[in-house]
Amino acid sequence: MRTHLGPDASPSAHAPTPPAVAPPPHWTFPVPATGTRLANGMDVAWYRLPGQHVVAATLVLDLPLSREPRHLEGVATLTARTLDEGTQHHPGEEYGERLEEVGAALGVHIGLGGQQVMLDVPVTRFAEALPLLAEAVRRPLLDRADVDRHRALRLAEIEQLEANSAQSANRWLRSRLWDAGSRASRMNGGEPETVAAVTAADVAAWHATQVRPAGSTLLLAGDLPEDPLPLVEELFGDWGGAAPGEPLPPPVPAGPGVLLVDRPGAVQADIRLAGPGVDRRHPRWADLLVATNAVGGSFLSRLNRVLREERGWTYGVHLGLSPYRDGGSWAVSGSFRTEVVGATLTETRALLDLGAAPLTEEETTAAVQQLGGTLPLRSATAEGVVDQVASHLLAGLPADHADRLLADLRQVTATSATEAYAELVDLSRSTLVVVGDAAVLEPALAGAGFEVTDRR
Fold it and tell me: Name one Pfam family in it (predicted).
């Protein structure tokens, strides 16, 4: 029934009192219900998550890309991408059909520090799906035709990347930010000349010598009705292999410089301004995380507010951190109209310097609330939990890293964030990569104080 209020009536007189907003409940990262190490060196951790009816299983392999032979870089990626093309028990398309029958999805992720093989499946079909994960990892066919196809796909992928200005800028930044001897200076999936050299025999040899249980961890999360460890032991207990190889060496910075990549006639330029940074084990990581979020890590950060909202020079600009197991980097990235690149770089450099304009308590509080609020959200599903734990494992972080980080974030102040930023974001060591119309951009860069040291 709709009630009409006359012109003299006051709706506030009958409006209910709004409920009080309670503070968010105390949150801690899930603790595994059980965990063990098999005799072959593989760790297992099971997170019992009531209500999560899709089980996430991820096998984290201690397989840094620095172990690839230099002339065969990309072999790890081709191996991983061929795992689901058929196994000894389910050859060819039969393997994919079996995954579909049980409602499972298999995926892989290749990072600089290691590899993940991921499985999602309804809890009711978990016992049927986990053997398929074990098959893909332990007994893949790695057929020559499949390897050849994935090699061709990877080469085509690289061509597409080169055609994309933003992706090309990211690739050139890696090659200029890190010393050529560091694996971090080259694409995770390999460069064209090394990918082209990989054969099916190389893939088989890589799998036989590098994909091993020692140093690996199987993560399981979901509302499983009973302890899955007996099934895990049955599927992986007799998996053998040598001990892990050498750990991933930290990347070595190449030193500052300015690279201009020519795209004649381009109406916009992709800018990457970056420098060496720290990893998540650094004692001031929380302070740095808050500072970079306030400067350029959120929509209302200084960089985006000025360059996008006030100037209208870009659809968006971002300052982010890329931590590795040891060391890392910071980078400003964005696409800008060609005619404003010089002014953009001048203003960006000023905004990145907190000497004249330290962070305010308001900015710091907003950043802490955003970062602290997203931690629980990222762990709200079974997949989110295993993703977080896998990331921590590959970074050499403790199991309670999320809880420690949340506690550290609550201690950050405007002063501590500004000091950490000033200490760890060194503009004098920065590398600039600009992809666009060189004829127009080179004078603009010089006018902004950036002398080009390399051209492509």
Answer: Peptidase_M16_C
